[in-house]
Amino acid sequence: MSKTLDWDWANLGFAYVKTDYRYISIWENGQWDDGNLVTDNTVTISEASTALHYGQQCFEGLKAYRTKDGSIQLFRPDENAKRMMKSCERILMPTVPVEKFVDACMQVVKANEQYVPPYGFGATLYLRPFMIGIGDTIGVKPAPKFLFGVFCMPVGAYFKGGLTPVNFTIADMDRAAPYGTGAAKVGGNYAGSLMPHERAAEKGYADCIYLDPMTHTKIEEVGAANFFGITKDKVFVTPKSPSILPSITKYSLMYLAEHYLKLKVEERDCPIDKIDEFTEAGACGTAAVITPIGGIDYKDSLHVFYSETEVGPVTTELYNTLTGIQFGDVEAPEGWIYTVK
Ligand SMILES: *Cc1c(COP(=O)(O)O)cnc(C)c1O
Question: What EC designation does it have (predicted)?
Answer without folding.
Answer: 2.6.1.42
